Amino acid sequence: MNARIQRWNLLLRSLLSFGALIWFWCTDQPGLGCGLALLIFFFYGLVMGLMFASLHHINRDSQPSALQLLHAWVLELISVERIFAWQQPFAEQAVPDYLPERCQQRGVLLLHGFTCNRGLWNGWMRRLRSAGHPFIALTMEPAFGSIDAYCDQIGAAVAKLQQLGGQAPVIVGHSMGGLALRAWLRREHLKAIQPDLHRCITIGTPHFGTLMANFSLARNARQMRRGSRWLAELAQQESLGGTGFDCYLSACDQIVCPSSTALLPHARAIELPAIGHLSMVFHPPLFADLLGLLQDRRGASPAG
């Protein structure tokens, strides 16, 4: 569903931009037409600039500098167009899941965030396959339903990965994906089941909600609001408390703010400097950390 919505979104802003360009070009105002076309096409980028500027006041504890915010904004502009204008709308299924028979390598489950799909992970999936690691990347549906609705998909994917080589998998969740992971762990805990997981990684996940969720009426967005009943119940009913988790966060994350909400108690915190919400997925050291975990032959970490 997200891929179709994003294709229509790209088509609409392309048509509006082209229409503005042609209109003003025909009225002998090509400069104005070009400027308006760029403004329409990259309108979200300008809004995003305001979001980054607000972080100087929202993240008062870490208080990123103007130069860091500018750097993060430029990287995020590139990442947003890469994800929402190509990978997700047109290349969602470009890289299939990799589940080889008789595989002895540890596997990984990849969970995307709000308004995203499995195309987010295309670069990761190609590198994982090259390294011989099995993986499953989900497109979690319904796109705008309850986060709890994703639990069945996650449980089935974890079971497939565990059956391959008998090794506990690593689960990676970006943004809302980290909450979907916790929702599944909560469900397993309530059924008195201890999931066999090696490690859990969350990247820019609003574990304690985010101010930006107030700008959407979608059910899963409302669940991610600061002080939501869903987040309170999740914290009360789960048993992990952050044990077995690595939480990646950034003071320049324009979506999950304040940035401290991306950190679970007792989790290992890894701060990424001067990098925005989507750009964290393309940060090379983060993927290197994942490979290190996948090659770790020690026993599983408690995660449920």
Describe the structure.
It is a single chain. This protein is α/β, with parallel strands linked by helices. Strands 2-1-3-4-5-6 form a 6-stranded parallel β-sheet, sandwiched between helices. Strand 1, helix 5 and strand 2 form a beta-alpha-beta unit. Helix 1 runs antiparallel to helix 2, helix 1 crosses helix 4 and helix 3 crosses helix 4.
Write a brief structural summary.
The protein has 304 residues and is α/β, with parallel strands linked by helices. It is built from 10 helices and 6 strands. Helix 3 (43-58) crosses helix 4 (66-90).
Strand content: 5-15%
Please write the CATH class name of the largest domain: Alpha Beta
> What's the structural domain tally?
2
The CATH fourth-level homologous superfamily of the largest domain: Alpha/Beta hydrolase fold, catalytic domain
The helicity comes to 40-55%
Series of secondary-structure elements, N-terminal to C-terminal: HHHHEHEHEHEHHEEH
Unreliable residue runs: none
Number of H/I helices = 10
How many beta strands in the DSSP annotation? 6
Give the second-level CATH assignment, the architecture of the largest domain.
Answer: 3-Layer(aba) Sandwich
Per the CATH scheme, the topology name of the largest domain is Rossmann fold
Inertia-based shape: globular
Structural class: alpha/beta
Major pleated sheet: 6 strands, parallel
Strand order of the largest sheet: 2-1-3-4-5-6
